[in-house]
Design goal:
Length: about 240
């Protein structure tokens, strides 16, 4: 390990560029993989097809670019975006995403503190798409590390809400301290597994098999932003 530090904060231009790269990678993967977007289920989002996944990321970009953030229940907001596009051809949905891409990326560049979560969300869904397509690329790439570190911001907020102390994450040759106070739990992992584990893409059994040191049970309320899946993704 080379040292201990806190979570980095990425500038807006970097985040906007990463969003654009992920957007392009997802479209390229769709075109090269040969998956049926209507029949292929995205296991990490079990009610969604590949078509629905693209409708989700497109809908977020379209609504926020038009100044239509969620008014209340964000799940209803997301569900509407997907439902509205379910009867459209996927090529039209992708054209819609392309049409707002530059404006949305400019929003990210100018407001990184407000928009970083959308970059995290997109890279998470990129790996969801890769899992659905049987593609294992990108796990050792810089963008996996960036997304993992963005995800640690969610953990930091959840630790504070739960009144829990700090967590240390050992990955990529560094120790990243997340949260406040004394470190009482340590996770040793790699960026891809950190992203998927703390991003609620692992079952309870898989979480318990991860390399945690400390009282994991006490820390559950601060580690996982969403419910854990019942079935393994087989990643």
């Amino acid at each position: 390990m080379t040292g201990t530090r806190g979570i980095r904060h990425f500038d807006g231009l970097r985040l906007a560029a990463e969003y654009q790269k992920s957007r392009r990678r997802m479209i390229e993967l769709l075109q090269s993989s040969g998956v049926d977007p209507e029949r292929t289920t995205v296991a990490a989002c079990p009610a969604w097809s590949v078509h629905d996944l693209f409708s989700h990321v497109t809908g977020i970009a379209v609504d926020l670019s038009a100044g239509r953030p969620p008014a209340g229940d964000s799940q209803e907001w997301v569900d509407r975006q997907v439902a509205e596009r379910r009867s459209r051809r996927l090529s039209d949905v992708l054209e819609e995403w392309h049409g707002v891409g530059s404006d949305f990326e400019s929003m990210i560049a100018s407001s990184p503190k407000a928009m970083w979560g959308l970059v995290y969300d997109l890279v998470v869904h990129e790996f969801d798409l890769r899992q659905a397509a049987g593609d294992r690329e990108g796990r050792d790439a810089d963008f996996a590390l960036l997304a993992a570190e963005l995800g640690l911001n969610l953990v930091k907020n959840d630790l504070r809400k739960a009144g829990l102390g700090a967590v240390a994450v050992e990955m990529a040759g560094e120790v990243i301290v997340v949260g406040e106070g004394e470190v009482e739990l340590t996770l040793r992992t790699n960026p891809f597994e950190c992203l998927r584990l703390l991003g609620s893409r692992r079952t309870m059994d898989e979480v318990r098999k991860a390399d945690f040191e400390g009282d994991l049970d006490r820390y559950f309320p601060g580690l996982f932003h969403m419910e854990l899946p019942m079935r393994s993704l087989g990643e």
